[in-house]
Amino acid sequence: MEEIQRKGGINLTLIGALKECGQAAGDRVIRNHLGEVSWGFYDFYGTCSILEAELKAVATGLRLCWQKNINKVWVEVDSKAAMLLCIQQDKGPWEVQYILESIHQSVNKMETQFSHIWREGNKVAD
Predict the structure, then answer these.
(1) Where is the RNase H type-1 domain (predicted)?
(2) Domain residue limits, the chain
(3) What's the rounded Cα separation, in Å, for the pair 18 and 108?
(4) Radius of gyration for the alpha carbons in the chain, expressed in angstroms and rounded
(5) CATH topology assigned to domain 2-121
(6) pLDDT 10s digit of each residue in the chain, 126 long?
(7) Angle at 106 between CA 100 and CA 112, to 5 degrees
(8) Residues pairing with 29 in the sheet
(9) Which of 32, 28, 29, 26 lies closest to 1 in space, CA to CA?
């Protein structure tokens, strides 16, 4: 993280959430190299798995960074499974392959670093 931040990159902190009724959503918080919050986003995904919600949050966050000409991104995800699928360039389960393809395309265009963050340490995106 520190290496990307030293290079003027940003931090993208993500949460995918599944509500009691089976509806999913995702939050993203983007912080600059000083750790200051630059923007925050929320998306409603409808009925999907928690893994899908996490990966959709990653894909959308990376796409938004690219659109804003930010190509150095440290991504924090509170789902270790989602993080591993992103960094291993794995196709993953069939129901999320299209999302992973989008993530892998973004990762190949950008300088990225992924890490797992415990949900309790992820208060900024809650």
Answers:
(1) 22-126
(2) 2-121
(3) 29
(4) 13
(5) Nucleotidyltransferase; domain 5 (3.30.420)
(6) 455 554 556 777 866 676 667 788 887 788 877 778 888 888 888 888 889 988 998 999 899 889 988 888 889 888 899 999 999 877 889 999 999 999 999 999 999 999 898 755 444 444
(7) 105
(8) 13, 40
(9) 32
